[in-house]
Amino acid sequence: MERRTTEPTAISTSRYRAELVKLMSFKDDKTYDASHSFTAEKLLSITPTLVCHWMNKRAYGDPEPNEDIRPIHVRSSIAKKAVSAFMPRLNKTWDPVAKQGNPTRSDDVNKLIK
Question: What is the model's pLDDT at position 82?
Fold first, then answer.
């Protein structure tokens, strides 16, 4: 019987990394190479607000869209999963008081996707 693994394939890893690079480029307002490696400190500086603004910008063309707009560019669930894969605190939910954990697992980001 073949054993299944949950590790991402090389294709999904490169696709996920591309999403992370897009987020960090949005965050820092600069272009990063697709193979750029981000430090844990840089990754820990990502907040749920940043993730929401980035996903809104990608989906709606506006980081703070009004409620009447429909997504026209991309689906945010793929971006969330991709960025989450690189978070240092991958399995921790976001703690808004301590501002720690995985920002992609925050209430704000989850509400945005639903």
Answer: 86
Cβ pair 24, 44 in contact under 8 A: no
Query: Is the separation of the CB atoms in 11 and 74 below 8 Å?
Result: no
Q: What local confidence, expressed as pLDDT, does residue 12 receive?
A: 57
Cα angle vertex 65, ends 99, 87, to 5°?
Answer: 30
Distance, in Å, from the CA atom of 100 to the CA atom of 11, rounded to the nearest integer, reads 30
Domain boundaries, the chain: 10-113
Task: Give 74's pLDDT tier (boundaries 50, 70, 90).
Answer: low
DSSP state of 105: G
Instruction: Write out the DSSP string of 28-47.
Output: HTS---TT----HHHHHT--
- Tell how many helices (H) and how many strands (E) occur in the chain: 5, 0
Q: What's the pTM value of the predicted model, to 2 decimals?
A: 0.73
| Res 81: pLDDT | 86
Q: If 0-12 CB within 10 Å is exposed, 13-18 middle and 19+ buried, where does residue 51 land?
A: buried
